[in-house]
Amino acid sequence: MSSPIGAAFRRLAVVAIIGILVLVGISFARVSLASYQLNVQKSTLQRQVADLKTQNAQLQAQVASLQTDAEMERLARQELGWTRPGDTEVVVLGLPTATATATPTDRTH
Q1: Residues 9-25 pLDDT 10s
Q2: Is the Cα torsion angle 58, 59, 62, 67 positive or negative in sign?
Q3: What is the DSSP letter of 92?
Q4: Do the beta carbons of residue 83 and residue 77 sit within 8 Å?
Q5: How far is CA 58 from CA 10, 49, 51, 68, in A?
Q6: Of 10, 19, 61, 92, which has the fewest CB atoms closer than 10 Å, so is most exposed?
Q7: In 78-103, which positions are buried (b, 16+ CB within 10 angstroms) versus exposed (e)?
Q8: Distance from the Cα of residue 16 to its chain's centroid
Q9: Are 65 and 71 in contact (CB under 8 A)?
Q10: How far is the C-alpha of 88 from the C-alpha of 77, rounded, in Å?
């Protein structure tokens, strides 16, 4: 026969073991969730890095093209209205602007 103290001790041991297993399970679940979230974040950041590398390569190519004499001259003429010495600049006056060509709508109330 088992003593009442032995049976109580066994019940207490079983409850303690179950409690420990629950705590270990909760801890494992939290670590697994954190690991999953970090992997998702890592994938997102890797995509962003790849996109930024592509953008950087495009910008470097653009910088290289903008440093050529021909491109500098084109931008100076187009954007700044510069001319070469001896060139004659022609300014066309009287062309309608985008806002001047718009016709008002006729509304009746």
Answers
A1: 999 999 999 999 999 99
A2: negative
A3: -
A4: yes
A5: 72, 14, 11, 16
A6: 92
A7: eeeeeeeeeeeeeeeeeeeeeeeeee
A8: 49
A9: yes
A10: 12
Instruction: Give pLDDT tens digits for 59-100.
Output: 999 999 888 988 888 888 888 888 888 888 777 888 776 554
Domain ranges (residues) in the chain:
4-80
Q: Which amino acid is at 59?
A: L
Neighbours of 71 (CB within 10 A): 13
CA 18, CA 15: separation in Å to the nearest integer?
Answer: 5
Place of tokens 């109580």: 8
Residues 89, 83 contacting (CB under 8 angstroms): yes
